[in-house]
Design goal:
globular; 3 helices; 4-stranded antiparallel β-sheet; 114 residues; alpha+beta
């Protein structure tokens, strides 16, 4: 089940982000401080977006960073999936697809239909 992240999820979420960048390296290393600053900013300014986590049997199995922007051309909010990661043990079960379909339908862990 995908849900909004909470402060107590941060350590596990940062570990998942490190796993993402280990599997798919960025052009430059992404320091832990960037992840923590992003989480803090999204919580302080939810209009910017949110972090969501995949909870499976009371453990975190993935995360996504959902960032909002306004598009004049499209006439409203656009939701950018900045990062989406599902841990290997939880892949091939439709979790990522379920998140994207729920968001497109206006449901899921972030209300509203972008």
């Amino acid at each position: 089940m995908w849900r909004p992240s909470r402060p107590e999820d941060d350590d596990a979420l940062v570990a998942l982000a490190a796993a993402l960048y280990e599997e798919d390296p960025a052009s430059k290393p992404v320091p832990e401080a960037h992840h923590r600053r992003t989480l803090a900013r999204l919580r302080a300014e939810p209009i910017r977006g949110c972090a969501v986590v995949l909870e499976v049997h009371r453990a975190l199995g993935g995360y996504a960073l959902l960032v909002s922007v306004w598009s004049n051309e499209l006439g409203g909010e656009v939701l950018v999936v900045d990062e989406l990661y599902v841990a290997p043990a939880h892949r091939d079960r439709g979790h990522g697809r379920a998140l994207l379909e729920a968001l497109a339908a206006g449901g899921g862990p972030r209300p509203g239909r972008p």
